[in-house]
Amino acid sequence: MIFTDAIFPIFLTLVFAAHWLLPAKFKEARLMVLLGASAIFYGWWDVRFLALIGVVIAIAWGAGLYAGDKSLDEKQRNRATMLGVTANLLILGVFKYFNFFADSFIDLLNLVGVNANPSTLKIILPVGVSFYIFQAISFIVDVRREELAVETRIRRVALYIAFFPQLVAGPIVRAAGFFPQMEKDRKLSSEIMLSGLRFFAIGWVYKAGFADNIAPFVDPVFGNPMVAGDSDVSNWTNLSLVGATFAFGAQIYFDFAGYSMMAIGVARWFGFFIPRNFDFPYLSTSIADFWRRWHISLSSWLRDYLYISLGGNRAGKLRTYVNLFATMLLGGLWHGAAWTFVIWGALHGAALAVHRLLLGNKKYLIGGVLGAAIGLVLTQVFVIMVWAPFRAENMGDVLQVWAAFTGLRDSSEAVKSLEWIVWLAPLAVILDGILGKSGFTKLSRSTIMRHPALFWGACGVFMGCALAFFPLQAAPFVYFQF
Question: Which residues belong to the signal peptide in this entry (predicted)?
Fold first, then answer.
């Protein structure tokens, strides 16, 4: 089940009614309604997935009991933490990376002359496994760091890991921030309803109005970017490849930011507050700034649970650069089991290391408005070009796209080109950023408080426009594959 399915409004209405019709004193019963709804929501794809997430929950709960037990010595608590984290990472490795490493090993054997046939065993990738595994790890580590009290009730651990609004594609919620919200006495109010509606409506328009209408321009080009005359014939011009790459930068932003905002909105309707996942990343003036604005829940998770664990910037400059590179390399592999994602992560890791190096040499930096403008352009050009390995099927296609950017690709025989309207996609991202940072959003929030009827009317128009442009068949959210 996804937010844009026709069944979702019915599901949401029933869960909303069952949750809020229970008296406030039945706090645990309300939580159990949400847990049951989360099981239905996740099992809607494949009921077998429930067994896997059940194992993840049990491991996290058991490891948390020992990791937070102050009657044990430090070594025992650390061992419990390590076992819990390792077990979850092994689950992620088996389900997400078994096929990748098996196929890579077979390719390597064939490369050195050993005839190897691929195995017929293929493991299905459960939806959202990367996200809820990271949440399980967050729970174990937060308990060990004593940022969160030991939780003896497995049902609460289950709700944290399986909470349906952000279960399959984030945002990744920290355990230390979620569990205290379960203790609060939540009351339904007009403020909660309006706030949730605002997030959900904007997210819906991002997804239905923008992302799903950009995808038909992007998919055919990346489906076959080879030039005419190659083994896989394509007639796309260089400008088409460049335009499709810019359009994909807009598509993935509107798609993933849209899902995140819809998840935040749904969670608000049940009295839970999930932090924002995007902060207009295409306004970034450096690659470090980009990662403070893009997929914030993941970048901060990688920083706090991986980069700092590797040593962060505490072991000298060289080690800092290595830690930055390694963190993003693993972050790239987290996104997908393919060498293209490894390359994508490695490039971002190298860019972050170079940025840190330049910060240590102020003489190479240009300050003021000019420096910010140069930083903005260079950052966005880099980010857009590096979307190529994120979207392309293989490195051969990536090289075709990069060659198109540099003009080194011969497309003299190409006859197909994208429609000019595709260039409205990046313009929509720019407009979104300008409105977001101009104070327009603050104005809209104040308008909600003073004139709720005006807000409801605007939402109706907003959603009507989205529905008018909504494709006959909604595309799946991009991040569902991770």
Answer: none
pLDDT of residue 110: 61
Chain centroid, CA 369 distance in Å = 31
Question: Exposed, middle or buried by CB within 10 Å (0-12, 13-18, 19+), for 100?
Answer: middle
Tokens linked to 456: 């409801």
The confidence band for 472, taking pLDDT boundaries of 50, 70 and 90, is very low
pTM above 0.85, yes or no: yes
Residues 6+ apart with CB under 8 A from 19: 30, 33, 34, 270
Q: Cα torsion at 299, 302, 305, 310 (round to 10°)?
A: -140
CB neighbours of residue 211 within 10 Å: 26
Task: Examine the residue annotation and report whether 451 is marked as an active-site residue of this protein.
Answer: no
Cα 142 to Cα 173: distance, rounded to the nearest angstrom: 12
Tokens representing 294 are: 């893009």
Q: Could you give the angle at which helices 154-162 and 175-183 cross, rounded to 10 degrees?
A: 120
Tell me the DSSP string of 162-226: H-GGGTTT-PPPPHHHHHHHHHS-----HHHHHHHHHHHHHHHIIIIIIIHHHHHHHHHHHH--P
The sign of the dihedral angle between the CA atoms of 338, 341, 343, 345 is negative
Q: Which of 19, 295, 335, 348 is catalytic?
A: 335
Q: Which amino acid is at 99?
A: N
One-character DSSP codes across 365-425: ---HHHHHHHHHHHHHHHHHHHHHHHHSSSHHHHHHHHHHHHT-S--TT--B---GGGGHH
Q: Residue 278: pLDDT above 80? A: yes
Phi, psi (degrees; rounded to nearest 5) at 61: -65, -50
DSSP state of 282: G
Give the model confidence (pLDDT) of 130-179 as tens digits.
Answer: 899 999 999 999 999 999 999 999 999 999 999 999 888 879 999 999 99
> In the beta sheet, which residues pair with residue 236?
416
Q: How far is the C-alpha of 192 from the C-alpha of 174, rounded, in Å?
A: 21
Q: Amino acid letter at 372?
A: A
Q: For residues 324 and 413, give the distance between their C-alpha atoms in angstroms, rounded to a whole number.
A: 43
Contact 243, 423 (CB under 8 A): yes
What are the boundaries of each domain within the chain? 8-187, 191-481
> Which region holds residue 111: left if phi is over 0, alpha if psi is between -120 and 50, else beta?
alpha
| Tokens, residue 264 | 């935040």
